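One-letter codes give the sequence; the fold follows as tokens. Both lines appear below.
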Amino acid sequence: MSDRQILLTEAEVAQCVEDVARRIAPVIDDDTVAVCLLTGGLWFAADLMRALARLGRHPLFDALWLASYGDDRATSGRVIIRAGLQRSVSGARVLLVDDVLDSGLSLVAATKLVRDEGAKDVLSAVFARKPWPKPREVSPDFIAWDAPGRFLIGYGMDDGGRYRGLPGIDAVDG
């Protein structure tokens, strides 16, 4: 592996999650459906759900499996739906939860999908927002951490399927 630089420690990741949970809790209720965007969003979604529970919020939970990167370091430019929702979101407020906002393609696709399924309101939370060279079609409602424009691994973010389980976030050059 190329040179790695630690950007956030495990403790710093946990603090970012707690901070964003405090911002989310007042605008959701227990009828909100939190939808994790798989696979990368799993780590953030799990920690966020626990942080929200500590704040007295217990939203419903579902997952949506989307793919736009595969094992590459760049988006393919299209989003594939590998598995859809298991729970109805018709008439519900939905909170989409993802690991990182790069191009925004996955978040745009997920927003369209839940709106098409009848969601009355769609909010989104990402752990990391990376800078992007042109305007995105979507802007998350909640951002835990503004990341640098580098290739990130750890806390759900991977390099060819590896390093998702790192408890902190590293940048990889090369």
